[in-house]
TrEMBL record:
<protein>
    <recommendedName>
        <fullName>ornithine carbamoyltransferase</fullName>
        <ecNumber>2.1.3.3</ecNumber>
    </recommendedName>
</protein>
<dbReference type="GO" id="GO:0016597">
    <property type="term" value="F:amino acid binding"/>
</dbReference>
<dbReference type="GO" id="GO:0004585">
    <property type="term" value="F:ornithine carbamoyltransferase activity"/>
</dbReference>
<feature type="domain" description="Aspartate/ornithine carbamoyltransferase carbamoyl-P binding">
    <location>
        <begin position="38"/>
        <end position="179"/>
    </location>
</feature>
<dbReference type="InterPro" id="IPR036901">
    <property type="entry name" value="Asp/Orn_carbamoylTrfase_sf"/>
</dbReference>
<dbReference type="GO" id="GO:0019240">
    <property type="term" value="P:citrulline biosynthetic process"/>
</dbReference>
<dbReference type="InterPro" id="IPR006131">
    <property type="entry name" value="Asp_carbamoyltransf_Asp/Orn-bd"/>
</dbReference>
<keyword id="KW-0808">Transferase</keyword>
<dbReference type="InterPro" id="IPR006130">
    <property type="entry name" value="Asp/Orn_carbamoylTrfase"/>
</dbReference>
<comment type="subunit">
    <text>Homotrimer.</text>
</comment>
<comment type="pathway">
    <text>Nitrogen metabolism; urea cycle; L-citrulline from L-ornithine and carbamoyl phosphate: step 1/1.</text>
</comment>
<feature type="domain" description="Aspartate/ornithine carbamoyltransferase Asp/Orn-binding">
    <location>
        <begin position="186"/>
        <end position="320"/>
    </location>
</feature>
<keyword id="KW-0835">Urea cycle</keyword>
<dbReference type="Pfam" id="PF00185">
    <property type="entry name" value="OTCace"/>
</dbReference>
<dbReference type="GO" id="GO:0042450">
    <property type="term" value="P:L-arginine biosynthetic process via ornithine"/>
</dbReference>
<dbReference type="Pfam" id="PF02729">
    <property type="entry name" value="OTCace_N"/>
</dbReference>
<dbReference type="GO" id="GO:0000050">
    <property type="term" value="P:urea cycle"/>
</dbReference>
Amino acid sequence: MFMLKSSKSYSLLSNKCFQSRNFRVNRPILNTVNLKGRSFLTLKDYNAEEIQHILWVSADLKHRMKHMGEYVPLLQGKSIAMIFEKRSTRTRMSTETGFSLLGGHPCFLTPQDIHLGVNESTTDTARVLSGLADIVLARVYSHSSLEHLDKDASIPIINGLSDLYHPIQILADLLTLQEHYGSLRGLTLSWIGDGNNVLHSFMMSLAKLGIDLKVATPKFGSKLQFLTDPAEAARDSNVLVTDTWVSMGQEEEKKKRLQDFHGYQITMQTGSLAAPDWTFLHCLPRKAEEVNDDVFYSSRSLVFKEAENRKWTIMGLMVCLLTDYKPQTPKLRF
């Protein structure tokens, strides 16, 4: 059995200033984090305090704009170039609507508009976009494309998804769990499914935030193999998570993958082994073989709150990378 345990050494922020859905101040908060000008390719490059700051800004914007009805045009006069080699619903909608809501102008670029490294070299594309936009979000097949863009660009690059990592999804997951449980530290999250980019990003971040991680993957050529028994992974966990078993580009492997993942569907029986307060996450789109309707549409499921938080967390991230904005609401209780 493999279990990635969190480390107490990552406790960098006070955890006394935010209760789930209820703000309260205990003492003045001094903000020392400034991420302006940074790129966001992988959570490996961000420490606990920086991740917590992004979540704080995201929660602040959600509170001010959704619940208080304020207009907060922090990105007025700025533009974002959105490069999409892969199709998307949540990433495109959250980025376009979020950037516009903050007063900026999003520019969507399909593979027909900008074929990275084909119609024009990636180096030239990076330099051109640096003179035309303030920030780039790229959803690509190969993570090396992002690294190449970042190397030659003079503006921040955000990973909208690559074959190795999906860090913006993890920000949404963390904010959703923060809202639901009131605190992240001490939770146990169980991943049941494929060893993919979402799992890689969980591995780059959870231990920093005091969250334990358990992983169950089948006995086949997965990059990550820690457990093979879904029941063992689910036992005593607070959060059950899965994702697609057949990612884009793996369609030819579908038949074999469905055979390999037989028995990995998350059901209420799986949940019966988890902690009493267990919840379910899925980054969507979901297939029935991954999780049944009883779980997916139950009160345990946070998937639609999770999907909405893609918007607030990408907004928070873009504000952090483009401005030195200081949140107006109390720090979250981590």
